[in-house]
Amino acid sequence: EDQVTQSPEALRLQEGESSSLNCSYTVSGLRGLFWYRQDPGKGPEFLFTLYSAGEEKEKERLKATLTKKESFLHITAPKPEDSATYLCAVQFAYSGAGSYQLTFGKGTKLSVIP
Amino acid sequence: NAGVMQNPRHLVRRRGQEARLRCSPMKGHSHVYWYRQLPEEGLKFMVYLQKENIIDESGMPKERFSAEFPKEGPSILRIQQVVRGDSAAYFCASSPTQGNTGNTIYFGEGSWLTVV
Q1: Nearest alpha-carbon partner for B79 in B47, B54, B107
Q2: Is A78 near chain B, with CB under 8 Å?
Q3: N or C: which end of chain B has fewer CB within 10 A?
Q4: Of B91, B93, B83, which Cα lies nearest the Cα of B19?
Q5: DSSP character for B3?
Q6: What is the pLDDT of residues B15-68, one digit of tens each?
Q7: Cβ contact (<8 Å) for B109 and A44?
């Protein structure tokens, strides 16, 4: 069964302390990998889409990278407002039923302390 | 704000009642998805719809749950005879193109269902 695993489950950083979040997946064919940010009581907010190994996307303090088995979300010099749960989702290259769904990891809860 | 609109944001139902959750997709989007987030669990796919068609309902529970996306009006997720285990956040999402192309889907703010 194809799965998506995120680590760590929770991460506590001092303001300015850079780090990385990991998303690994068992693969039977990848159609796309997505990163979202979710604040408490809110819906997932889209950050990045990655399609092929070696691809990188960047936005402000965030940078997402993709290999054949995993993706990293690098956070450079984080600020308290970056505190949120970061979700990774994969669309696997099935055909037929199931090909439309995103499979989500359980997320990494990031806390940035001033 | 032309984002995905969901209502109600919060809904309380007694066991055995019906819950109806509504979703209007982003402007220009004709593909709608419903996901459920149970406490301490990740988001789980439920159903994918286009106007007047259910394309993929492989994630829907076999009983009590149904979804529609009529020609006019919002998409509706209907839960009949709710039980405590249905308490969760239900998220609607939409995309401009067919759902298995790897294109981004955008989520609404969710509807939080509490069954008492």
Answers
A1: B47
A2: no
A3: N
A4: B83
A5: S
A6: 999 999 999 999 989 899 999 999 878 899 999 999 999 999 999 999 999 999
A7: no
Q: What is the dihedral of CA B67, A3, B108, A40, to 10 degrees?
A: 130
CA Rg value for chain A: 14
- What span, in angstroms and rounded, lies between the C-alpha atoms of A28 and A11? 29
3-state secondary structure of A101: coil
Locate the chain B residue with the closest alpha carbon to A86: B42
> Across residues B91-104, what is the average pLDDT?
81
A101 contacts in chain B (CB < 8 Å): 33, 45, 48, 56, 58-59
- Region of residue A75 (left: phi > 0; alpha: psi -120 to 50; beta: else): beta
CA separation for the pair B17, B13 (Å, rounded) = 6
